[in-house]
Design goal:
The chain has seven helices and 14 strands. It has 324 residues and is of the alpha/beta class.
Length: 324
Amino acid sequence: DYIARRVSESGSLQPRSSRSPVRRKHSLITNIIHGLENAVHWGGWAVPLARAVGGRPRVTAANYALAASSNGPSIPPLRLGYASDFHAGPTTDPEVLRAACAALRTAEPDVVLFGGDFVNFNPNQIEWLAPELASVPAPFGRFAVLGNHDWMADAPRIADHLERVGIQVLTNRNARLSPPFDDVWICGLDDHWCGYPDAGAAFAGADGFRVVLMHAPSGLLDIGDNRFDLALCGHTHGGQIALPGGRALAVPNGALSRRYSRGCYTLPHGETLLVSVGVGCVVFPLRLHADPEITICTVASALSPEGAPRDDASGRRVSSDEVR
C-alpha cells in the first residue's frame, strides 16, 4: 500500500520515516497517458470547443483572514497570494492561466506561493508558463513546490525553469522572509504521491510562524506531529465537476483528498489548512461548480472584527469577503 502513514484512532497524524520515502515508477504510465492525451486531443480541438459552448469560466478570488496565535511572534499584516494546479496543456485554456496571473497581480500580495502541477504531462509547457507566473510582483518573494504531474512530466526541468525566472522551488526546505516579516518562514514540502517528502528538512531552523506550502492535503500525513501554523495546498480541483454547493463528484488520488476537498479548515491542534480548487483542468477542459480560483490570505497578529474568520454552514472558516 502506497500510504505509509495512517490517521490513528485518536485522530493524530502518524508520520512515516523520511528514510523510506514512497515514490512511484511513473515513466511507463506517464508515457502511455501522455500518448493517449495527445491522441484524444489531437489538433487542439478541446479548448476551442469549450470556448464555443461557453466553457471558459471566470477566475475568482477566495479571500481569507487569519489571526496569528497570540502566543507566537508579532506579525504585521502579511498578504499571501496562492495559486495551484495550472495543468498547462491541451485540457486547459491558456487564457484562463493568464487571467489567474492577472488576478494575482491585481491583488498585490506581499508573497506569492505556487502549489504545483504546473503542466499536465508535457514539460515543454513550462517554457511559456514560467514567465507568466514570474510576471506577478511579490516584494517579499515568489515560492513554489512541485506536484505529482510535474514529477510525472520532468521535475528537474520544471524546477529549473521556475528558478530561472526568479521563483524559488522549496523542495523540503524553507525560506525566511525579510523584515518586517522575518518571523515568518515559508516551508516547502515535496509531493506526497510522487516526490520525496521530508518534513524534518522542510521545517529545519524555522522557529517562528510556519507557513507550509505543499501540493495536496495528504501532505498532512508527511507533516505528522511537526508544528505549523498555516498550510496551503491544492490537488483536489474541488472535484473539477461538483454539485451545486460545491460537493465534489470525484476527487484525485490521496488519502485526505475527500476529507479536505476545498476551502478552509481548522485542524485538531488549531492549525489552519487552505485547500484551493486550482486553476486548470485535467481530462477535459470543463469545470462545474468549481470555478478556477486564486487564494488571498491575510495573516496578522490581530485582525479587526470584520476581517476575522468565521464559520459558514459547511464548517469552513472563511472571511466575510470570500468571493465565489
